[in-house]
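=== RUN LOG ===
request id: a7f3
mode: sequence -> structure
chains: 1
length: 299
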Amino acid sequence: MFQGSLVALVTPMAQDGQIDYTSLDHLVEWHLASGTQGLVIGGTTGESATLRPVEKVALVEAVLRRVRGRIPVIAGSGTHATDETLKLTRRMAELGVDACLLVAPYYNKPGPEGQFRHFEAVARSVSVPIILYNVPSRTACDLLPETVARLSRVPGIVGIKEAIPGVERLRALCELCRPDFGYWSGDDGTALDFIEAGGGGVISVTANVAPERMARWVGHALRGEWSAARAMQDSLAPLHEVLFIESNPIPVKWALEEMGWIPGGIRLPLVPLSERNRETVRITLERLAIGRSGSSAGR
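=== RESULT ===
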């Protein structure tokens, strides 16, 4: 299964909002060289909410061409509608992704039975592994442990990205779900505790700007080298915080622009990072010695 530091990759865009595939190629190569162990394309950080289905498919096609099987590629194919999710997931499976990430159906606010039937319908109709994605702060729809436990026994559903901070939810999941079910943290700041409690890694925002450091500390943690892992994670704590100073992915896209990796495009209703917060992000990058190469003082 997929372990380690997986990046929730941004979608580079020109100032007019068009996808910048040249910058995308550069980002993918940087992650391959930096030890990132998986790419999540078209997720929340990738601005999935404003990407058209045809753009999501084109993004994944471009990444698969660049990666050439060197690390797993996971496609975000979840939507608020079961039929649309099924069609997009089936298309991603045809492209040859390693898994699909399905967010809980947002806005509709389905109850546990509706959630179960939504994911079950997709999983039973495709051959690609399915990773659930629980982020109730955005969806207003919480995948409770009892529902996840039922879903863990549906063939093809292999794990969950849990974005509720901390480890209490993970402990409940571990007690209820099947033994080989996978767990990935969706919260950089508490990811170390998550891994220590039984998680297999992190689907990370911070890895966009510090991929090598994220890959190293997660590797330490997965090997049980807790002292080294905690020292590195503690050093990154200011970065975890500042990358959420405004709604994700606003700060991380501005940071990557500041580092020279991508242009400054972002799609409405999101807007570029406010002037009042730019200096805060810039100072944090400088203090951690994070620049165009992604190098850091802790190397």
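=== NOTES ===
The mean pLDDT is 96.
The CA atoms of residues 137 and 164 lie 8 Å apart.
=== END ===
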